[in-house]
């Protein structure tokens, strides 16, 4: 009888599957990709004005052409289909749809989004619409912008226009993208449009953005089919104290209050946190800013919370007499984007690899953030609505773009998502930032976040190695072993 030899063939590691129904997508924003800045009735947004202001954007770049998605959307959707994307998260340009921020819609502007949505649906890709990704119509800013309460009223009207036009075909909606950036970078540090440096106005803007979100949710619920999903996307800061000292713990508490709980408190609990009010009472009178009924409106239930994550936030209470460069990952300015906590010191994590933005790479920050939100808001479905990295990508003589650093970044962060799911976080999807290289706000075209390389001179699209890797992840519905595609 012949002996049976043991099978010594190396076995491939078992691939842990993502949950059934997990959504695989990629994201962009209107001003960053569309171009066509003055076509079909579109008027300037605050980013058109800001980018034309000398010294505000690197190299004097503007979004006038960007990635020309307005004219090339059919080819871009075909590329999405080729890569196997299941969802595309785009934002609507308010000034393309409602140029003055008031009054009736411009149908030519709405037609672009109707055609885009139809193209996506024909390709089997779920459209995910974000109503606001920072491009306020300039006329509304001229009237005071987000620090004025009336802007929330105008936003509700705009939400009614867009949802009325697209609600029969778009089943997933996001009100605001990263209101922290709109309020604090736009009105606090001034590194984003409209470039104001007024701490009190930044806090007023934060409240009115919250109110705009709540009013938009009311409109969406009234107009959309019952099955439609609503959400808001926050860039929640995964805040860590530099040391275990009491002073550093308080610094972390302060940044958590003004960076995170200023939004999650009213949106998810129906209240502003008392410590935030105390920390900022010298800047605004919250008892007058927040009117009767505001918190009930702001806390209208959402179907999911979108979370954007790139890097953790490391803070300390400053040592007396020491000076610190504010390494808070949000651009250089003599003015702080942390109203009421301007004294807090920010640090770059030691021993961590960094992206071209000089942001430390730490997937554990995403895991911790997802678990923290799950603990604080049990039962709330979550979506990772932005995650990605900029690197110094280039086209090889063979016409390829190899970006192993981005693949490693994505692998680590998707592993963090998978670990969080295994530990009880209800994460329903992941949207890579970004589908393609684009106008990176105050950095202009100097930073490339895309999975698809854009040659801005020719507008040629070249999928990077990371795009093919991500396509394979989608196909597998699982992470491949490290080092494989």
How would you describe this structure in keywords?
485 residues; alpha/beta; three-stranded mixed beta sheet; 16 helices; 13 strands; globular
What would you say this structure looks like, in words?
InterPro entries: GH (IPR017853), GH_1_N_CS (IPR033132), Glyco_hydro_1 (IPR001360), Glyco_hydro_1_beta-glucosidase (IPR017736). It is an enzyme of class 3 (hydrolase). Belongs to the glycosyl hydrolase 1 family. One of its GO terms (molecular function) is beta-glucosidase activity. Helices cover 38% and strands 13% of the residues. With 485 residues, it is α/β, with parallel strands linked by helices. The strands form three sheets. Strands 1-2-3-4-5-7-10-11 form an eight-stranded parallel beta barrel. Strands 6-8-9 form a three-stranded mixed beta sheet, covered by helices on one side. A two-stranded antiparallel ribbon has the order 12-13. The chain starts with 22 loop residues before the first strand and ends in a 9-residue tail after the last helix.
Task: Specify the structural class.
Answer: alpha/beta
Instruction: Please outline the major beta sheet.
Output: 8 strands, parallel, barrel
Shape: globular
Global mean pLDDT: 95
What's the total number of strands? 13
Low-confidence stretches: 1-13
Series of secondary-structure elements, N-terminal to C-terminal: EHHHEHHEHHEHHEEHHHHEEEHEHEEEH
Helix count? 16
N- to C-terminal separation?
43 Å
> Strand order of the main beta sheet, please?
1-2-3-4-5-7-10-11
InterPro entries: GH, GH_1_N_CS, Glyco_hydro_1, Glyco_hydro_1_beta-glucosidase
Pfam families: Glyco_hydro_1 (PF00232)
Organism: Streptomyces argenteolus
EC number: 3.2.1.21
